Amino acid sequence: MESVVHSVTSGLGLTLGAGALTLFFNGLLTFIVCWFAGKFVLKLAERIIGKIPADRSLHSFLCSVAKVVVYFIIVLIVASSVGIDVTSLLAIFSVAGLAVSLALQGLLSNVASGVVLMVTKAFKSDDYVEVNGISGTVEEIGLIYTKIITPDNKVIHIPNSEISGAKIINYSTNELRRVDIIVSASYDNSTQQVESAVMKAVSRIGEILTDPAPFVKVSDYGASAISYTVRVWTKSENYWTVYFALMEGVRDAFEEDGVEMTYNHINVHMVEK
Known about the structure:
Helix content is 53%, strand content 19%. It is of the alpha+beta class. The strands form two sheets. It has a five-stranded antiparallel beta sheet. It is rod-shaped, with a radius of gyration of 36 Å. The relative contact order is 0.08.
């Protein structure tokens, strides 16, 4: 009797050992096949993503997402091949994913906003923009922050979630930009005299374009001066150069042509009785 039990136990052990060994080799073979197949799929995905007309940060993000998806699928296939219940595994990953998403809600919001900014192309690197009252040149569009360098060389990192929900002014989208200034002159100077002096200042600035043509016209009659609106066009990168040169040039031209630049003042006339 003991010999029979021993024989049965030995046979069962061999059967269990053979079954475990079979599962191991099945899992190993499945893993090897899936690994090489996954590498092929990832290379194909990288080529496709590389052709997307978007920022390099978005390419890197999409490639990372593709890797996570492929590796997750490999884990599920291998687990199924060795007899693990995939349904339970998916449930565990779902709960873990929910917990992580709740913990990183703000971070994920910035990432999602970063993807939106890269896809919509509201601006790109080297563009001069204004966002939430902050103006500067875009240095880098990241997945979490956008780096902006202000004219006084400050580096500001703005969360992408704040940018996507704000009004964005992009001054670099178009090749040309209009420079508007308002100057004032005395009522004693004729309109033709003032306009001639302004056009003299305009003609001295080489960055100002002749097409569209410069514009100078009366725009307001003030208490002690007449206001003139001056509009000229230049390339976007020359905006501030033209602006400051025009502000200085108009004053010099007014002095040369005898045009009085007035300021707020009160004239008191004494009358004897």
